[in-house]
Specification:
The structure holds 2 protein chains of 2 kinds. Chain A is mostly helical. Chain A is built from 16 helices and no strands. Chain A folds into 2 domains: 144 residues, no CATH class; 184 residues, MetI-like fold. Helices cover 76% and strands 0% of the residues of chain A. Chain A is globular, with a radius of gyration of 25 Å. Chain B folds into 2 domains: 262 residues, Rossmann fold, CATH 3.40.50.300; 230 residues, P-loop containing nucleotide triphosphate hydrolases (Rossmann fold, 3-Layer(aba) Sandwich), CATH 3.40.50.300. Helix content of chain B is 39%, strand content 25%. Chain B contains 24 helices and 20 strands. In chain B, a hairpin with a 2-residue loop joins strand 4 and strand 5. In chain B, the strands form 4 sheets. In chain B, strands 6-7-8-3-9-10 form a 6-stranded mixed sheet, with helices on both faces. In chain B, strands 16-17-18-13-19-20 form a 6-stranded mixed sheet, with helices on both faces. By secondary structure, chain B is α/β, with parallel strands linked by helices. The chains are: A mainly alpha, B alpha/beta. The interface between A and B is medium-sized, with 23 and 31 residues.
Chain lengths: 334, 551
Amino acid sequence: MHPVLKIVIQRLFLGLLTLLVVSIVIFIAVNSLPGDFAQAILGQSATPEAVAAIRKDLGLDQPAITRYFTWLGDMVTGNLGISFAQANFASFVGTSAESGSGPVTVLQQIAPRFQNTMFLAGVTAVIAVPLSLLLGILAALFRNSVFDKVANVGALSAVSSPEFFLAYVLILFLAVLNPVLPSLSNIYSDMGFGERLLRTLLPALTLTLMVTAQMMRMTRAAIINLLASPYIEMARLKGLSPMRVIVKHALPNALAPIINVIALNLAYLITGVVVVEVVFVYPGIGQLFVDSVKIRDIPVVQACCLIFAGAYILLNLMADVLSIISNPRLRHPK
Amino acid sequence: MTDERQTLVEIRDLWIEGRSDEEWNPIINGVDLTLHKGEVLGLIGESGAGKSTLGLASMGYTRDGVRISKGSVKFDGIELTTASAAKKRALLGKRIAYVAQSAAASFNPAHKLIDQHTEAPVQHHVSSKSEAVADGIELYRRLRLPNPDEIGFRYPHQVSGGQLQRAMTAMAMSCRPDLIIFDEPTTALDVTTQIEVLAAIRDIVEQFDTAAIYITHDLAVVAQMADRIKVLLKGDEVETAETREMLSTPKEDYTKSLWAVRSFQRPAKPAPAVDATPVISVQNITAAYGKMPVLHDVSFDIHAGRTVAVVGESGSGKSTTARVITGLLPQTDGVIEYRGQPLPADYRKRDRNQLRQAQMIYQMADTALNPRKSIGEIIGRPVEFYMGLRGRKKRERVRELLNEIELEPDQFIHRLPSELSGGQKQRVGIARALAAEPEFIICDEVTSALDQLVAEGILKLLARLQDELGLSYMFITHDLATVKAIADEVVVMKDGHVVEHGPKDDMFRPPHHPYTDLLLSSVPEMDPDWLTNLLAERGVENIGDAAVDKM
């Protein structure tokens, strides 16, 4: 078997194993949250019988291990379960069959939100990744120049500022003083692509400011790190232009660390953008997650956690595989 | 005779400085250099002499943190010290090319050889890509690379070191430059590989009448390659002369001392008694790294007070044998005996006394000493561990050991390894081995990273310690001159087999095993006609790796 294929299969297996371990951690963490859904929904005057009935209905009276395996089995078969909060009260007292509309599944709740989050992350990535690479390459090329310093200080100031502050600054300049972009990003499923893109642009720009610094600085550092290598000296002694030396000779060998940092930042875009979603009223998965924690809607919380974990693992896996492919020693064995 | 030819490079009163610790230190102090078209100039000197810096300066290039502070460098009438970067770029690669010491590190691992080869001609608009590819294949053929039509389409890691070095020479030739700087192109190669590369370089430089500056620390190599030789010492020129004149009648004392290094030789000791028990006996050892077998049925004895040199090329299993003896790599078959008693195969199963008997001195003293520990701590550790000495007794023993290796204890005991020179570090490595009071020491290429004068000092020290303490040495080396100097017996290894084994005098006297013969004949000699004669005598097919492959 080709060694790259072998490594990829190995990594894939390791990724699944990690996901399994993460699922245990999620289950334990979520279940040790203080409070109880039945108690929360019925209020303080609930009778013990009513609480017990709901708990029984939701399977909360089962031992933790049984609940874990039931949940895991459902997850593997694609059944994310039923949201506690969206299930109507009638279903808890056994009359849901007559009410007509079935309970809302977690999948129905999460799917549109997740789509929106991926759209925002995608738009941000399309802007931020090429921008960071370009800035990083230019900073390496003109290292220690004014450009290098301005780019570095600018990117660092952006990443050091709180997200909501950057968001409001952008709203002030791009929506209020120069009304070129809408300040609210409430998008709907029946909206056209152009309209959707326009409304997503402001949060995407805010996030770009957040993720550019790390990717740019890693690109710069990884390239500069190689500039003392004998093969870079050789390239210079061939009389090649500085730009060609960096793009053709340094960059291909600097890809592995850059790819890894890009993957980490993309994972952040999928999982860590709650604040930006709130500021722009963007209906992403982050808000849903926070709301569900508040009302102890355990199936939704667990499903979100699992999606976040999956995104991290998948992106890191892809980064690993791409790093391996960028290494000619592995791609072309002796 | 060369003076009638046109001048190509003219360096006048060149001063170069390097920046370290926030100040500029001199590297080259007012050196002149003249090179004529088609001439080969040898630059020799020890490490730190400024050879490479001067070589690069003749291309108008300085490394980061290095600057030309004064003087002029003219290439074909163009003043390079003041030329713009763009003007210099137009010359580099096209009219001036460079061949680096380590071809493995100087080829970009991310691109195929041929793509790197064609880069200069295409970027300088000398020829089209397809013409450059065709020419590259032709050059590979002339440099006698195997499979010239196909080898260029491989990545650097898929090609051996000697082949890469030739591919790099081909790359330098790609624009047919007027000048090539060869910066120690064969230093990292085995002797049998070196000879092929030397023959190839000399041949192609003659074919295209290219001028060259050939930088090396090996006098015998430069004698084969250069028309004239310039000797450098710490940034100053010592002397310059025609090669033959320089070899026969060196004027300066320093040059004479360089020439004399190879004269150190120790008389061979009488053969051990027939019934003597060897200190270490290696018996039918077979060993493997994972599933890869590396040693096959290796056997030899090392008797008390004697030096056994183990020679062979890289990959022949020399160091692996040392790892088996020390128990770092347990053998799959065979026995290591210490004074007639078998040693456990795994070092973890050996007791302290057994561990104490086999000490090692390493090639890279730099990496073998803990940079965070003082010399006193480095030597004190085995004193405490093996001999159980503490406090004042330990300190006294460390001082005694430092005296033994000729380093003044008061001066050195508190220093860190980084505050020592290469030779001094290697001495500390020797003291650390002696601290265990072993009977047997493995010296793994202990002099190969050192300059010749320093190496000679280390060899003399090892010889004296052997006489005083009755030590036995297993001396791993690829340098046959070192073998001649200090060995009593020689073991020749190839591909994990012992191919020849016997007293030194027999080894250097025919008849030899064909492989020993090849090794011996591949060591360059000081005679400037040596390579020419050897090629005439054997033919290009019967030297170096080509001959190894036939075996």
